[in-house]
Write a structure and sequence with these properties.
Layout (H helix, E strand, L loop, with lengths): L16 E2 L21 E3 L2 E3 L2 E6 L1 E2 H4 L23 H11 L3 E5 L9 H21 L4 E3 L8 H13 L5 E4 L14 H10 L2 E4 L17 H4 L1 H15 L2 H4 L4 E4 L11 H9 L22 E3 L5 H11 L4 E2 L12 H6 L6 H16 L4
Parallel strand pairs: 4-6, 6-7, 8-9, 9-10, 10-11, 11-12
Antiparallel strand pairs: 1-5, 2-3
Helix pairs in contact: 4-5
Length: about 375
């Protein structure tokens, strides 16, 4: 595979590459020189691990934001670790027992001029393709899309999947004030369904709740981010989008937010208050049943939380996620291995099998 900018070779060739996430202070430390990589084993057999939730940025793209580029790395302790060379990232992955990362870039260009956003997306997708081509056994990626222009996004997605080898696209939880269930986005979802491309939903925060979420505890993230994902998924369900595109492969970050924690309430809403439900939208199944056609990262921190999430959506819908390089979960493999509610076959599926199947990767 080649791209317009050509391959990136040695680590020095990745000088424009930066990794960053959405997490807490600090970042995983590089593995000490000479230390053997951590390996996951189940039943005495080595198991490949695939992390579907890890982040990156590229200097060449963020530079187009001008002074705004400084706001793209969060003001937390991990920010100084955002700009990494590939060898350092690989050492961190080895220390965590992660064989492959599926990297993505949180959308920061949705509010920008269409042409500027298109330039940013072009650079990012080219560099993501170069990264994956240079280390195909260690990296895969979700493309960026200029979703404020759905027609352009359709073309970008097709190029990313068919020509650049990317596995789908990373998207926010809405564009401006427009929910993804809006018909204007239907062409994008139709193209993703046609291509078999996955869409990784990562929330962008809820600025309209900034005052309510102010104060101690970083509630704009700890509450706002999961809530954003929850709202996005509920709209896709209740507006009939998932009925219209039943083959759409959606992966929701952070365990899908709060949806799975209180999903059955959704099944009662239109019976209790039919006046608040559109009689013209006739869902083909109960709202909770749509969770079984969505996918979720397992970034929920504890074996008990994994047990509950798997009980609601099914182990076949879960994939390992860490939010690397930030330290939301520095040992995502161990979190899954300690989940006694999962049998060995299910643990293998969550560690890599489900991601390999959905993203068409080698397990």
């Amino acid at each position: 595979m080649t791209t317009r900018r050509g391959f990136l070779g040695a680590a020095a060739g990745f000088a424009g590459l930066a990794f960053c996430g959405c997490g807490l202070p600090g970042a995983a430390h590089a593995q000490p020189s000479g230390m053997r990589p951590k390996v996951a084993r189940i039943g005495g057999k080595r198991v490949k691990t695939i992390d579907v939730h890890s982040h990156c940025l590229f200097h060449d793209a963020t530079a187009l934001m001008g002074e705004g580029a400084a706001n793209l790395t969060p003001n937390v302790g991990g920010a100084k670790h955002a700009y990494l060379v590939v060898d350092e990232r690989l050492s961190q992955m080895d220390a965590m027992g992660v064989d492959m990362e599926v990297v993505s870039i949180n959308p920061f260009w949705y509010a920008k001029d269409r042409d500027l956003a298109a330039r940013i997306v072009t650079i990012q997708n080219e560099k993501l393709a170069e990264l994956c081509a240079s280390k195909p056994d260690r990296f895969a990626a979700f493309a960026s899309l200029t979703l404020q222009d759905p027609e352009l996004a359709v073309k970008q997605l097709e190029t990313a999947v068919r020509k650049q080898g990317l596995r789908g696209a990373a998207i926010g939880d809405r564009v401006g004030e427009t929910e993804f269930s809006d018909p204007k986005f239907h062409p994008v979802w139709a193209k993703a369904e046609e291509l078999g491309a996955a869409l990784f939903i990562h929330p962008q925060g809820l600025p309209e709740l900034a005052k309510r979420l102010a104060g101690n505890g970083w509630l704009t993230n700890t509450v706002g981010n999961p809530l954003g994902t929850t709202i996005a998924l509920q709209h896709l369900i209740f507006e009939g989008t998932l009925d219209r595109f039943p083959g759409l492969k959606i992966i929701a970050a952070h365990g899908g937010g709060y949806l799975a924690s209180y999903a059955p309430r959704s099944d009662h809403a239109c019976f209790v208050a039919p006046a608040f439900c559109n009689p013209d939208i006739k869902l083909k199944k109960k709202p909770t049943e749509y969770l079984n056609q969505l996918y979720f990262d397992a970034l929920v921190f504890t074996p008990e939380a994994i047990r509950h999430l798997a009980a609601q959506v099914g182990p076949s819908q879960l994939m390992m996620g860490s939010d690397h390089p930030y330290v939301w979960d520095q040992d995502p493999v161990d979190t899954i291995m300690r989940a006694r509610s999962l049998n060995d076959k299910e643990k293998v599926a969550v560690l890599s099998g489900n991601a390999a199947r959905v993203l068409r990767l080698t397990a």
